[in-house]
Design a protein that fits this description.
190 residues; alpha/beta; Endonuclease III, domain 1; 2 domains; five-stranded mixed sheet; 5 strands; nucleic acid binding; RNaseH-like_sf; RNaseH_sf
Length: 190
């Protein structure tokens, strides 16, 4: 008994056992004593001086330590090449959106086209994703707004089919490229 407190010591280590209510403060003190050095140093300090604190509690505490959270380096993403578009309809990206889980009667797909310069979008409801149906809407869009210089799509069968290629061949200035839509590192064709 120390003062008015009863302290229990561990037989194995000879260190005082920490009460549940005091675990947070004890870990905080040990973590500060080692200069916010991290999990392993904090665990060594706790293990050498106290008993009854589990290793995984140290991890939980470190996630709440404001000093350590502010010090962590922010991971930077690798910078890719920016897509430079100088005017409307230089590059149009096109993709299909699957709505089979929430169909609107017989319409289960949406054909989405987007101009990279103005961010203007077109959307067409589709009953299926057959190449002929996709080509019909692409043809209508080209007739209404004019063909883009670069027509970019993913590698889906509906876009790599000969029907789409024929639509693009009708406008000799249009180049069809396949890759991931809305991704700046896809090959640039000018």
């Amino acid at each position: 008994m120390v003062g008015s407190q009863h302290i229990i010591f561990c037989k194995k280590s000879g260190c005082p056992v920490v009460a549940r209510e005091e675990i947070f403060q004890t870990i905080s003190t040990c973590h500060t004593n080692v200069g916010h050095s991290g999990r392993d140093q904090t665990w060594a300090e706790v293990k050498n001086n106290y008993a009854g604190i589990k290793w995984d509690v140290i991890d939980i505490f470190l996630k709440t330590c404001t000093s350590c959270c502010q010090r962590q380096a922010v991971k930077s993403l690798p910078s890719g090449k920016a897509m430079i578009n100088l005017s409307f309809l230089i590059r149009v990206q096109i993709d299909l959106i699957d709505f089979r889980s929430r169909p609107d009667n017989e319409y289960k797909w949406i054909l989405h086209a987007r101009d990279c310069f103005s961010k203007y979008s077109w959307a067409y409801a589709l009953k299926s994703k057959r190449a002929a149906e996709v080509a019909s809407h692409v043809f209508d869009q080209f007739c209404s707004f004019g063909p883009p210089r670069i027509f970019q799509s993913d590698n889906g069968r509906e876009f790599t089919a000969g029907v789409i290629q024929e639509v693009c061949n009708m406008w000799p200035g249009t180049v069809m490229i396949h890759g991931r839509p809305r991704h700046p590192q896809t090959p640039v064709a000018i």
